[in-house]
């Protein structure tokens, strides 16, 4: 659907200003939701149609709705940022749109054009602009576009009715007391994705399959889980929800190559920011042995991870059943510098020389 026309039905009972102020003072993450949501329908006959902003509320779903049985669904995660002048911006929304295209193709879902994805997100941010917090404490409005098989049908085939939606939730800083290193657990039993699988698609099944390994990590006193490749069981892929980087003694940075891991928007942005700061960045296979030996020898001076929620976080110790690689000892100067550069850009405190920011309001 080109030049998507989006109708708007205002919420007759929006959250009162006093209550909204309380929410924005301590929003948490994914706990409170804005007054409205976006919905767009798709069928083979009509394509994308009936785009609308309506009051936020529950969905009425038949028990035979296809997504409940075959998990044909995808989603995105992104944020809107309030700048000091009161304007509101999103960060590289067209990249999220294009990743959703790739996810759609892998999950046999219809492709929503990039411009329509951006228009739908903009429509929700514009109507719920008062929900975008100020930048204090790295607050933002978290945006969740998603698409699912909404056809009522129990046959195993691509759905003939699909729904795309966007909801939003104000978000506080990921780290309450400042950026802290995360401890990691190396799972030796579970893998996230294999060759030809859905690893590069942003689909709920990937996250569902990571939860038992994440439970294992928490049971061993760690914050996050590290997955190795399914074929050899020795190459580092990613964490449950974050990409990894390894800083070498000479300043160059290695990050696991994509293919079976999610192509993170933050990941790609950090590669460009690090290169601009003078770091050579290589995307390649990175083995768990290289991690262990590199930290031991001092060849690896710093390890960090990134994602939409945490932005950038230093990595501490890596543990597994019967072993441990300690944290690097030189602090996290590269991680913190890259993180600051990215956050300053997102909140309008630095010049957007990359053209990454998209003004909404």
From TrEMBL:
Key words of the record: Amino-acid biosynthesis, Aminotransferase, Branched-chain amino acid biosynthesis, Pyridoxal phosphate, Transferase
Position of the signal peptide: none
Listed cofactors: pyridoxal 5'-phosphate
Family annotation (Pfam families): Aminotran_4
Highest taxon listed in the record's lineage: Bacteria
Pathway: Amino-acid biosynthesis; L-valine biosynthesis; L-valine from pyruvate: step 4/4; Amino-acid biosynthesis; L-isoleucine biosynthesis; L-isoleucine from 2-oxobutanoate: step 4/4; Amino-acid biosynthesis; L-leucine biosynthesis; L-leucine from 3-methyl-2-oxobutanoate: step 4/4
Catalytic activity reported: L-leucine + 2-oxoglutarate = 4-methyl-2-oxopentanoate + L-glutamate; L-valine + 2-oxoglutarate = 3-methyl-2-oxobutanoate + L-glutamate; L-isoleucine + 2-oxoglutarate = (S)-3-methyl-2-oxopentanoate + L-glutamate
NCBIfam families: ilvE_II, PRK13357.1
Similarity comment text for this entry: Belongs to the class-IV pyridoxal-phosphate-dependent aminotransferase family.
Protein name as annotated: Branched-chain-amino-acid aminotransferase
Species: Nocardioides lentus
């Amino acid at each position: 659907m080109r030049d998507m026309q989006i109708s708007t039905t205002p919420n007759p009972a929006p959250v009162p200003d006093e209550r909204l102020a309380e929410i924005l003072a301590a929003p948490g993450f994914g706990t409170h939701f804005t007054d409205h949501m976006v919905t767009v329908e798709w069928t083979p006959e009509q394509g994308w149609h009936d785009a609308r902003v309506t009051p936020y509320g529950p969905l009425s779903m038949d028990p035979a709705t296809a997504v409940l049985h075959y998990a044909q669904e995808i989603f995105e995660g992104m944020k809107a940022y309030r700048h000091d002048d009161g304007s509101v911006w999103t960060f590289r929304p067209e990249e999220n749109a294009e990743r959703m295209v790739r996810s759609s193709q892998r999950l046999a879902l219809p492709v929503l054009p990039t411009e329509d994805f951006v228009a739908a997100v903009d429509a929700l941010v514009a109507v719920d602009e008062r929900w975008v917090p100020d930048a204090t404490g790295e607050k933002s409005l978290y945006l969740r576009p998603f698409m699912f098989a909404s056809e009522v049908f129990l046959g195993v085939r691509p759905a003939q009715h699909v729904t795309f939606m966007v909801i939003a939730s104000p978000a506080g800083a990921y780290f309450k007391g400042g950026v802290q290193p995360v401890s990691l657990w190396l799972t030796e039993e579970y893998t996230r994705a294999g060759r030809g699988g859905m690893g590069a698609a942003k689909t709920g099944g990937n996250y569902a399959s990571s939860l038992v390994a994440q439970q294992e990590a928490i049971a061993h006193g760690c914050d996050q889980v590290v997955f190795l490749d399914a074929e050899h069981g020795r190459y580092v892929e990613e964490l449950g929800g974050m990409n990894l980087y390894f800083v070498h003694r000479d300043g160059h940075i290695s990050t696991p190559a994509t293919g079976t891991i999610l192509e993170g928007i933050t990941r790609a942005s950090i590669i460009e920011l690090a290169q601009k700061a003078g770091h050579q960045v290589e995307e390649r296979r990175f083995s768990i042995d290289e991690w262990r030996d590199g930290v031991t020898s001092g060849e690896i001076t710093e390890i960090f991870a990134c994602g939409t929620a945490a932005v950038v976080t230093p990595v501490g110790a890596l543990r597994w059943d019967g072993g441990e690689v300690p944290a690097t000892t030189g602090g996290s100067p590269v991680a913190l510098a890259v993180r600051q550069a990215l956050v300053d850009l997102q909140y309008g405190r630095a010049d957007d020389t990359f053209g990454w920011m998209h003004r909404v309001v």
